[in-house]
Design brief:
Chain A is α/β, with parallel strands linked by helices. Chain A folds into 3 domains: about 60 residues, lambda repressor-like DNA-binding domains (434 Repressor (Amino-terminal Domain), Orthogonal Bundle), CATH 1.10.260; about 130 residues, 3-Layer(aba) Sandwich (Rossmann fold), CATH 3.40.50.2300; about 130 residues, Response regulator (Rossmann fold, 3-Layer(aba) Sandwich), CATH 3.40.50.2300. Chain A has 13 helices and 12 strands. In chain A, helix 2 crosses helix 3 and helix 6 packs across helix 13. At the A-B interface, helix 4, helix 6, strand 2 and helix 7 of A face helix 4, helix 6, strand 2 and helix 7 of B. Chain A binds a DNA duplex through helix 2 and helix 4.
Chain lengths: ~350, ~350
DNA sequence: CTGAAAGCGCTTACAG
DNA sequence: CTGAAAGCGCTTACAG
């Protein structure tokens, strides 16, 4: 009706009225400028005169106007969103993920927000059909993959991602021939630190717990560090001290009980994750072994829970803040065309009671 | 070049070629139908002949085509996305959130995915300027708010959300005059269960730990249940048994140490969250009091960590799976115009060693 | 410094 | 059952 005067939806020129779902067109009509100028002003373009810009931004604020991201994204082919794909090992309907990864979420969303990106979170199962879709559907500009997965099982998915030109970074293993970017802690060094610490406490028969096969390159690297530390101490590494377990507390419990039953003697245990260490400590306790008197235990990750188990767990800390921030910085760099590369973070030994040093 | 033949970007009619970033237009050209038909086919419209539909879907699959969400969203005014706003109490740069809420994430993303929605995750501080933007910018169709916040501090934000017609649901308090939808556990009942359990163990001087003021309606409700249980047992509730603490482990520790120093006698403690209970148990231990012999302790939440503290914590469990699924179901119902309402979940007593029942 | 115009890739009335 | 066309709300070359 009022469009007789070229005024669109708002009632009067220069009087800011409430508009239901304002568009840049509404702002333009009220400000008495073109819609293009509104768009420029809201993006702080140097092309628009400061006074004009301020007036427009003021009106936008008063109307509670926000740029329609769908429209902007359609135009620019960007979403300013990162998809965070976390996969769980449980495979069940548990929807649980390793708390280590969960605790990265805060740092990831914070630093993404700081760089102007939103984070789309989702849980994935290794069996799911996923990944390519996020970028192809323009929901995300890049992906962050999180979780201790079976590397062999999803290696093919990584290849598919790479083939589809998807930008992604994976936390954890930094395998040589692995497609895409990755960021992880120096697992070899971490394994070395854990083992050297046990050796320094006089432990000589140090078992290693976890799946150190190629299915878990991170754990394999921790094992490499373990072997190196034994070498440094002039000790053979005894393959009978390898205890295989899937990365769950339950499986660790079962495996360590069986190992104890086998009668193999040991005085130290390096569990390649805290989840495993916790299961192992329960197994040791239930079998009547004292930690750390009979067996010194060291884990890996420094889960929030690690300080609260009994006895508190000595472990190798992965810095989740650096990890979260590094993942975001790298993927955003990749999205924005900067020169980025895979990298490693320094692990840190956290000494608590489970090793016997305190 | 090849457009002479009306063929767009793809090389030959009926031969599926690799197209860089295929659009529905590309699919249409290859399938020899209009773009509109492709759109219908991909949405499984009954308007399109089944054979045509299947042919189109097959081509889309082969080309790795996915609907551009920005374009679809612009057209339909929907994003099929829920924003999950978690706010932390720490206020620091810690980017940490109560693990209770964090553990809901899996269930939220899973059930959202099941209903065709993505989840945009973000951390918020109560001081941040937020909220309205998500829906106004068409990034999300509705919000889920998570976190034990200071209710008074963000009540105004809830009003702003409501004023902007934002669809949202808040987990926790179901205060009478509160705007928007909410879902929480029955906190009065939970507080009653915790207290009645302590009474059943013969405890008579039961302290309550936490901020039970109006700033935390959830905690206030738990306190109401505590009072009701004492009433049921014919006991007065003694206000000298109220121990105020902010909802952190550290503050609980400090508060309980001070309370012990005051010399007020007590044989039971109901902490309104597990975080508080854990801090309290440390304070008790450090003061030489035995749990549960000297003081029986019950918490609230059933954090993942609760089973691992020493002694394992008896607590009131909030069902995070039901909570996560309920939040998603309700907000999606609201978005899709169904008749939805606030609701409450049943709390459950989890008996462990800290109360002395085992 | 500003405006008119094109176009991003969809969905969906409208017409057949 | 299918197509031609309009239009969602932006951004940005182009022209002035």
């Amino acid at each position: 009706m009022l469009n007789t005067y070229g005024i669109h939806r708002a009632v009067a020129y220069n009087a800011v009225m409430k508009v239901e779902n304002p568009t840049s067109r509404d702002i333009a009509d009220i400000a008495g400028v073109s819609q293009a100028t509104v768009s420029r002003a809201l993006r702080n373009s140097p092309l628009v005169r400061p006074e004009t810009r301020d007036r427009i931004q003021k009106i936008a604020r008063e109307l509670n106007y926000f740029v329609n991201r769908n429209a902007a994204g359609l135009r620019t082919h960007q979403s300013n969103t990162i998809a965070l794909l976390m996969f769980d090992e449980t495979g069940g309907d548990d929807a649980q993920i390793n708390p280590f990864f969960l605790s990265m979420l805060g740092y990831i969303t914070r630093s993404a927000a700081g760089m102007g990106y939103d984070v789309l979170a989702s849980m994935q199962q290794l069996t799911d059909d996923w990944h390519v879709e996020y970028q192809a559907s323009h929901r995300a500009d890049g992906l962050i993959l999180l979780g201790y997965g079976d590397y062999v099982a999803y290696r093919r998915k990584l290849d598919a991602l790479a083939a589809a030109n998807t930008r992604f970074i994976i936390y954890g293993a930094v395998a040589a021939d692995q497609p895409g970017l990755s960021l992880g802690c120096d697992n070899v060094r971490g394994g070395h630190m854990a083992t050297a610490h046990l050796l320094g406490l006089g432990r000589r028969r140090i078992a290693i717990l976890g799946d150190i096969s190629k299915r878990h390159p991170e754990f394999a690297a921790r094992h490499d560090g373990y072997v190196a530390a034994l070498d440094d101490a002039g000790l053979e590494h005894d393959e009978s001290l390898r205890i295989f377990a899937d990365n769950t507390e339950e499986d660790a419990y079962r495996a360590v009980r069986a190992f104890l039953d086998s009668g193999t003697g040991f005085d130290g245990l390096f569990a390649v994750t805290d989840m495993l260490a916790i299961g192992a400590m329960h197994a040791l306790a239930d079998a009547g072994r004292q930690v750390p008197q009979d067996v010194s235990v060291v884990g890996f990750d420094d889960l929030p829970r690690a300080a609260y188990v009994n006895p508190p767990l000595t472990t190798i800390q992965q810095n989740i803040r650096e990890a979260g921030e590094g993942l975001v910085k790298t993927i955003v760099g990749l999205i924005e065309g900067e020169d980025v590369a895979s990298s490693q973070l320094e692990p840190k030994l956290i000494v608590r009671q489970s090793c016997g040093a305190l």
